[in-house]
Design goal:
The complex is a heterodimer of chains A (149) and B (154). By secondary structure, chain A is an alpha+beta fold. In chain A, 29% of the residues lie in helices and 34% in strands. Chain A has one domain. Chain B folds into two domains: 72 residues, no CATH class; 44 residues, no CATH class. In chain B, strands 1-2 form a two-stranded antiparallel sheet. Chain B starts with a helix and ends with a helix. The relative contact order of chain B is 0.04. The chains are: A alpha+beta (149), B mainly alpha (154). Strand 1 of chain A pairs antiparallel with strand 1 of chain B, so a sheet runs across the interface.
């Protein structure tokens, strides 16, 4: 029965590796590890596959926090850390404070898709963090999702 | 009788004793092999051993055939396992590719409550994105705020 066991093990490892690669090397990765799934102040959305094809995306993962200033501070710090790796970015400020930031990050490896972080903080206790993966560009996403009229 | 004497097939007394034990089904494999070796490797013109030769030849053939059957059976079992494993691997691989590429995989957690239907996920996605679209300050406005002071100069 060894061959079957080995095949199952290999498949399991492949699946695990695939799932863990999504936010590889990013400061926001721990936030998307599932810790907000059961949070009473959070809305978490994960979409993969066909539904995202019209947007040239393969992954949509968002966390919206309400009345959680500590979590919002964590989001902000992680986004700030990742923003330094961005190859393209746009920010919206209110005074000196960033209330929204859109960042395009390089792929985890050369043969993978672009990665994007969209962050919005309308108030100190509320924030939305979106992680996207796809074969597209930041400008397209901003035009598509944010500046749609 | 010592252990050495048991296998002393050249000794007529021991030989007779061994043959008697063989017919009684009391000999070990080594003892049986010793008898077989003696009777088939040497030209013994003793008709007393004809019956024993016939029995040994018959059981020897039977044993050989049984061994081959077991070996073939084992080979078939290994081949079957490998075939099943290959089929399982192909099905799993196809399943992984199908699930990861073509089908939508949606999960939504709304305030701790889990939903797995696509409609809820898509609805929440649009709701989330709409929040980015609120008419507070947009990138355009931000950019215009940067450049407008120059344009508005008297």
């Amino acid at each position: 029965m060894k061959p079957i066991r080995q095949i199952f093990l290999a498949c399991t490892l492949l699946l695990t590796a695939h799932a863990s690669l999504a936010q590889e090397g990013l400061a926001v990765a721990p936030l998307f590890s599932g810790q907000y799934n059961k949070d009473k102040h959070a809305v978490v959305v994960v979409i993969k596959g066909n539904k995202l094809k019209p947007y040239d995306l393969s992954l949509f993962h968002s966390i919206t926090i309400e009345n959680g200033p500590d979590d919002v501070a964590l989001f902000e710090a992680a986004v700030l850390a990742d923003s330094r790796k961005a190859v393209n970015s746009e920010t919206v400020k209110s005074g000196e404070e960033i209330i929204a930031g859109y960042y395009q990050l390089p792929p985890a490896s050369s043969d993978e898709e672009n990665r994007f972080i969209l962050f919005r903080k309308p108030s100190p206790g509320n924030a939305t963090l979106i992680y996207l993966e796809g074969d597209t560009e930041l400008e397209k996403l901003i035009n598509l999702f944010i500046q749609k009229k | 009788m010592t252990k050495q004497a048991k296998y002393d097939i050249e000794n007529p007394d021991c030989r007779e004793l061994l043959i008697e034990r063989y017919f009684n089904g009391e000999t070990t494999n080594r003892e049986e092999e010793a008898i077989r070796k003696f009777l088939f490797s040497k030209s013994i013109d003793d008709s007393r051993y004809d019956e024993l030769r016939a029995v040994l030849a018959f059981t020897g053939t039977g044993k050989r055939l049984a061994r081959e059957t077991v070996r073939i059976g084992r080979k078939r079992t290994v081949r079957t396992i490998v075939r099943i494993a290959a089929c399982v691997a192909i099905l799993l691989g196809a399943g992984i590719v199908y699930l990861s590429s073509s089908r939508s995989n949606c999960v939504t957690y709304i305030y701790g409550q889990k939903y797995t239907d696509t409609e809820t996920a898509v609805e929440q996605m649009h709701k989330t994105l709409d929040a980015f679209n609120t008419p507070e300050i947009t990138v355009e406005e931000e950019l215009s705020a940067i450049f407008s002071p120059l344009e508005n100069l008297p």
